[in-house]
Design goal:
With about 450 residues, the protein is an alpha/beta fold. The chain has two domains: about 5-130, Rossmann fold (3-Layer(aba) Sandwich), CATH 3.40.50.720; about 165-440, Dihydrodipicolinate Reductase, domain 2 (2-Layer Sandwich), CATH 3.30.360.10. The protein has eleven helices and 18 strands. Strands 7, 8, 9, 12, 13, 14, 15, 16, 17 and 18 form a ten-stranded mixed sheet that branches. A six-stranded parallel sheet has the order 3-2-1-4-5-6, covered by helices on one side. Strand 12 and strand 13 form a beta hairpin. It is globular. The chain binds 6-O-phosphono-beta-D-glucopyranose. 6-O-phosphono-beta-D-glucopyranose binds near residues 200, 202, 219 and 395.
Amino acid sequence: MATATTLLILGATGDLTSRLLLPALGQLLAREPERRVHLRGVGRRAWTDDEWRETVRTAFAAADAEDVFTSLVDTTYTRADITDADDLAKLIAEPTGRLALYFAVPPAVAAAACESLKDVDLPDDTVLALEKPFGVDEDSARKLNATVTHLVPEEQVFRIDHFLGRATLLNVLGARFANRLFMPVWSAEHIESVLIRYDETLGLEDRAGYYDHAGALVDMIQSHLLQVLAIVAMEPPATLERRDLRDAIGTVLRATHVWGDDPATASRRARYTAGSVDGVPLPSYVDESGVDPSRDTETLAELTCEVRNERWAGVPFTLRSGKALASKDGEIVVTFRPVNHVPVGLTGDAPGTVLRFSLGPDRMDLDLNVNGGENPFGLGRATLSTDLGEGALRAYGEVLSGILDGDATLSVRADAAEQSWHIVDPVIAAWRRGDVPLEEYSAGTEGPSGWPRPA
Ligand code: BG6
């Protein structure tokens, strides 16, 4: 029988809870009904238990998991100020089983709540889950780490990055580490470049309060794509257990720097203007409600990094993500160097082999040079493809299952959280100084003109 957990969602009336956490919880419980979860919603709004229960029921229904809603009959809602130690003490009193506090709130509120938790007696096995962004820069991330690790040991802290729960990212591990075809050539000697791209069609979606302060660089590159880079570039861990995997991630991120240490040439930023995405008109970003145009928030960011170690020095890793683009499309593209010499007699181009992982729908493609057909010595391109299949759980389901099991393997360790800020802080500073122009693109296009989509 799985350990019972009292899961307190702090920020229960927010968008993240209804859109991502609750559907994922429903799906998880439908697959693993033996789990015993005592769910408590906590928020600042004056909701009734019935309003909360209805939110949970609707979210479970959206995940085809309405049936398991009945297993949460005792779910209740409490109105509280989570930055107040007395309120917090009442909230955590007498949990059933392990206590898990999930902070689905903005970073400043999470930081204030963790500060107040210092005055509260937490059960020893309490786990704390904190949503991204973890802090607002390296310094604040370090302070927040000091606060949370004063409350509970590091292995009970879950800094959430739902990309680490994505099936595709986990699939990279198998392709990379279980094939002799790739293992010996996974280095600068054979790889020319790596592109990690996550293009979205969604616009702001009423998230100005958060997004207008974060922008694409923090929202996606700092929070998610650097972790993807780490999985692609890390040294092979001996096991995929928590310590080994996170050691490998931490080590490779410590070696990761902005290309040439020059954000002005290694980064680009842009913001969408009015346009239409999939036939639906979208207003200009600056006209969205809650946006402060003077903040110059970017909705598309690109950053090239170098991993300065023996394996990777000299290979550009380009990370790019944007909103309101022409298509939803995420991928990891590993481009190998061309061979040194093609035998005279084989005709046509022989560009480098390309290995591509698509991030939803999950698939893997290998573009190779082959000859044959009408002209037996003519080279052409062929693609070997395989669907990687859907993960059994949504990414947030993986995240929640780790929290309920008390297994922090697929969450971000303190050093990695600080280091990912260490990498992007100089870029943020350069953008604030105006060293990199803020370009524009029409919503529904592939980005600014003269800024071609990376190959
Ligand atoms: C979130 C970002 O963390 O990830 C969003 O805040 C983004 O802006 C989302 O849209 C992308 O991930 P997914 O899994 O929803 O495609």
